[in-house]
């Protein structure tokens, strides 16, 4: 069987604290961009849903591109695109929390106070939301792929996420404890299905890693929990 559509998410989301400040993360969008370009060569209808990626990763050669800001917006965009026979690759780094209150005016420094306490609420987990929709509405032929960037216990955390988010595959990679951000450097990844480790490659550039991940997915035949 083949996929009629692919959705690739990429980059960080942004959650506003007040009109001039936000919380986000250091994802560049590089991995998602290269995966989107590779997938578009295989699946003509490929939708790239991007958060605030770096300029050079904004416009992969895909049939459509959707720009979002917050995790809730990304979640809504993915939910509206998901359908039968869809491959979803969540390479984005959505912010897990948003400020409990987004202030209408700029937060001012308080005289005599050396700290600022902000309260955050959990954002939706996009993959979990999509998994539930697929199960609830019996949407056939989907394949959900997640990423797990970990500083330690890669296999344990990656397999935990694969299970809790009900994924077909998860791409695990170690991020150095001493590196800040997600980095431009070469990387190594391990692919897991529910039966454990299924492949690994690297160290290679993110572009080469993207091509190998997509080759693996092509050969795997995809399909819900077929791993
Ligand atoms: N993800 C998602 N929705 C979120 C956060 C993450 O769908 N709100 C996706 C990411 O795109 C990635 C996978 O879930 O494919 C794992 O993301 P990660 O941030 O590693 O996992 P979390 O579930 O947020 O766990 P933690 O931050 O506690 O490690």
Can you give a write-up of this model?
The chain has 227 residues and is of the alpha/beta class. It has a single domain (5-101, 120-222), classed as CoaB-like (Rossmann fold), CATH 3.40.50. Helix content is 27%, strand content 28%. It is built from 5 helices and 12 strands. The strands form 3 sheets. The chain has an 8-stranded mixed sheet, sandwiched between helices. Strands 2-3 form a two-stranded antiparallel sheet. Strand 11 (187-193) and strand 12 (196-204) form a beta hairpin. Helix 1 packs across helix 5 (206-220) and helix 2 packs parallel to helix 3. The longest helix is centred in the last third of the chain and has 15 residues, at 206-220. The chain is globular and about 60 Å long. The structure holds cytidine-5'-triphosphate. Residues 71, 90, 92, 94, 96, 123, 125-127, 146-149, 161 line the site of cytidine-5'-triphosphate (CTP).
Order of helices and strands: EEEHEEHEEEHEHEEEH
Q: Return the CATH topology.
A: Rossmann fold
CATH superfamily: CoaB-like
Span between termini: 14 Å
Radius of gyration: 18 Å
Number of domains: 1
Principal-axis shape? globular
Number of strands: 12
Strand content: 25-35%
Biggest β-sheet description: 8 strands, mixed
Instruction: Name the hetero compounds present.
Output: cytidine-5'-triphosphate
Poorly predicted sequence stretches spanning 5 or more consecutive residues: none
Order of strands side by side in the largest beta sheet? Answer: 5-4-1-6-9-10-11-12
CATH class category: Alpha Beta
